[in-house]
């Protein structure tokens, strides 16, 4: 049975090259990659190439829970597209579109079966919203 695909998006007030750099730079990822203020991303590694892997550590700040969000890149078109497969074989497709100085990010990801669809969508959207705020605050 095919997995349900969830769609999220954000319009970032920044040029596409700045958005691409902050989305893929491990030092930047550690600053924005969390769904709420009681979580953080203490480590990140990113080998941005087809066949390359990424690994971002997500942890509750109180130390009560943590996990590695990781996967392998399937397709990359610089400044346009990233596709990857997570360790549980779910796929994610992202596209980046520059429009009048803004960058539109569209993300489609396959849902997992443990948590409600709304909860997954809200969590991923919260992380993307944190990314938007982070990039827009950078000089």
From TrEMBL:
Give the Activator of Hsp90 ATPase homologue 1/2-like C-terminal domain ranges. 13-135
Q: Which InterPro entries match?
A: ASHA1/2-like_C, START-like_dom_sf
Query: Which organism's genome codes for this protein?
Result: Sphingobacterium thermophilum
Q: What is this protein called?
A: SRPBCC family protein
State the Pfam families in the record.
AHSA1
Write out the similarity annotation: Belongs to the AHA1 family.
